[in-house]
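Lab notebook, bench 4. Still working through the backlog of constructs that have no structural model yet. Next entry is a single chain of 101 residues. Request: give me the structure tokens for it.
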Amino acid sequence: MADDELPDEVPVRRDPRRREEASRALLVLIAGALASLLLVRECAFGGGMGARDRTCRCHGVEWTLYDRRPADGPRQSLCVGVVLSRTCYRVTDGPVIECPR
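Model written out:
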């Protein structure tokens, strides 16, 4: 035994299955983050106190964040999926206008 080696030091073996599981978990995490970036979009927004209102058709799940109207503030929802179309109104249920980009 060498002078700088302690008797209780044992070389650590790395388990290849554990490394594969960690890589797989990291890939799932990255895929989830990319999917959320690509699939979560703002859907409906506006409509409080005579403001412009935007609605949409969502292929997926539309999640209402808040719907406080008329005097409390605008309505807002997220689309988890694909936004098929958007419709903008001058005021809530008013005439249709072109949606701003």
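Notes after review: Helices lie at 16-39. Residues 16-39 form the longest helix (24 residues). Flag for follow-up if needed.
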